[in-house]
Specification:
109 residues; mainly alpha; Cytochrome Bc1 Complex, Chain D, domain 2; 2 strands; 63% helix
Protein backbone atom coordinates (compact mmCIF):
# COMPACT_ATOMS: atom_id res chain seq x y z
CA UNK A 1 0.00 0.00 0.00
CA UNK A 2 2.88 2.39 0.84
CA UNK A 3 4.44 1.69 -2.54
CA UNK A 4 1.18 2.59 -4.28
CA UNK A 5 0.94 5.88 -2.37
CA UNK A 6 4.57 6.70 -3.13
CA UNK A 7 4.06 5.87 -6.81
CA UNK A 8 0.93 8.04 -6.96
CA UNK A 9 2.82 10.91 -5.32
CA UNK A 10 5.70 10.57 -7.79
CA UNK A 11 3.32 10.54 -10.75
CA UNK A 12 1.56 13.62 -9.38
CA UNK A 13 4.89 15.43 -9.05
CA UNK A 14 5.89 14.44 -12.59
CA UNK A 15 2.56 15.73 -13.91
CA UNK A 16 3.01 19.01 -12.04
CA UNK A 17 6.52 19.47 -13.43
CA UNK A 18 5.38 18.79 -16.99
CA UNK A 19 2.52 21.28 -16.57
CA UNK A 20 5.02 23.90 -15.36
CA UNK A 21 7.23 23.17 -18.37
CA UNK A 22 4.22 23.55 -20.67
CA UNK A 23 3.30 26.83 -18.93
CA UNK A 24 6.86 28.08 -19.38
CA UNK A 25 6.76 27.27 -23.09
CA UNK A 26 3.36 28.97 -23.41
CA UNK A 27 4.71 32.03 -21.59
CA UNK A 28 7.81 32.02 -23.82
CA UNK A 29 5.69 31.77 -26.97
CA UNK A 30 3.30 34.48 -25.81
CA UNK A 31 5.61 36.95 -24.07
CA UNK A 32 9.16 36.39 -25.30
CA UNK A 33 9.29 34.85 -28.77
CA UNK A 34 8.28 38.01 -30.63
CA UNK A 35 11.69 39.48 -29.75
CA UNK A 36 13.83 36.50 -28.73
CA UNK A 37 12.47 34.15 -31.41
CA UNK A 38 10.87 30.75 -31.03
CA UNK A 39 14.29 29.11 -30.56
CA UNK A 40 15.77 31.91 -28.43
CA UNK A 41 18.27 33.14 -31.02
CA UNK A 42 17.13 36.78 -30.87
CA UNK A 43 16.93 36.74 -34.65
CA UNK A 44 13.52 38.37 -35.06
CA UNK A 45 13.23 41.82 -36.57
CA UNK A 46 12.43 43.33 -33.17
CA UNK A 47 15.11 41.23 -31.45
CA UNK A 48 17.77 42.46 -33.85
CA UNK A 49 16.62 46.05 -33.40
CA UNK A 50 16.82 45.78 -29.60
CA UNK A 51 20.00 43.67 -29.49
CA UNK A 52 18.36 40.55 -27.99
CA UNK A 53 20.88 37.94 -26.95
CA UNK A 54 21.16 34.50 -28.52
CA UNK A 55 20.14 32.18 -25.67
CA UNK A 56 21.24 29.15 -27.69
CA UNK A 57 24.85 30.36 -27.39
CA UNK A 58 26.78 28.60 -24.60
CA UNK A 59 28.83 31.74 -23.84
CA UNK A 60 25.67 33.86 -23.46
CA UNK A 61 24.26 31.20 -21.14
CA UNK A 62 27.48 31.06 -19.11
CA UNK A 63 27.50 34.83 -18.68
CA UNK A 64 23.82 34.95 -17.68
CA UNK A 65 22.99 34.63 -13.99
CA UNK A 66 19.62 33.27 -12.90
CA UNK A 67 19.00 36.13 -10.46
CA UNK A 68 19.69 38.69 -13.21
CA UNK A 69 17.35 36.86 -15.61
CA UNK A 70 14.67 36.76 -12.91
CA UNK A 71 15.08 40.48 -12.29
CA UNK A 72 14.92 41.25 -16.02
CA UNK A 73 11.67 39.31 -16.38
CA UNK A 74 10.10 40.94 -13.33
CA UNK A 75 11.41 44.49 -13.79
CA UNK A 76 12.21 44.72 -17.51
CA UNK A 77 15.40 46.08 -19.07
CA UNK A 78 16.46 49.58 -20.08
CA UNK A 79 19.41 50.79 -22.10
CA UNK A 80 22.04 53.17 -20.76
CA UNK A 81 20.00 55.94 -22.43
CA UNK A 82 16.90 54.83 -20.44
CA UNK A 83 15.23 53.34 -23.53
CA UNK A 84 12.98 50.37 -22.75
CA UNK A 85 14.55 47.23 -24.19
CA UNK A 86 12.18 44.79 -22.48
CA UNK A 87 9.00 45.57 -20.63
CA UNK A 88 8.46 44.04 -17.19
CA UNK A 89 6.29 40.96 -16.92
CA UNK A 90 5.21 41.64 -13.36
CA UNK A 91 1.95 39.69 -13.77
CA UNK A 92 3.88 36.40 -13.74
CA UNK A 93 4.00 34.49 -10.47
CA UNK A 94 7.33 33.65 -8.84
CA UNK A 95 6.91 30.02 -9.98
CA UNK A 96 6.19 31.11 -13.56
CA UNK A 97 9.30 33.31 -13.60
CA UNK A 98 11.42 30.48 -12.20
CA UNK A 99 10.02 28.09 -14.83
CA UNK A 100 10.69 30.65 -17.57
CA UNK A 101 14.31 31.06 -16.47
CA UNK A 102 14.67 27.25 -16.51
CA UNK A 103 13.11 27.22 -20.00
CA UNK A 104 15.66 29.77 -21.20
CA UNK A 105 18.45 27.61 -19.76
CA UNK A 106 17.11 24.73 -21.83
CA UNK A 107 17.55 26.70 -25.07
CA UNK A 108 21.35 26.29 -24.95
CA UNK A 109 22.68 24.17 -27.81
Amino acid sequence: MKKMILLAAMLGLAATLSVKAADAKDNWDTLCAKCHGAEGKGDTKMGQKLGAKDFTDAKVQADMKDDAATKAIKEGLKSAEDKTLMKPFDSLTADEVKALVAYVRGLKK
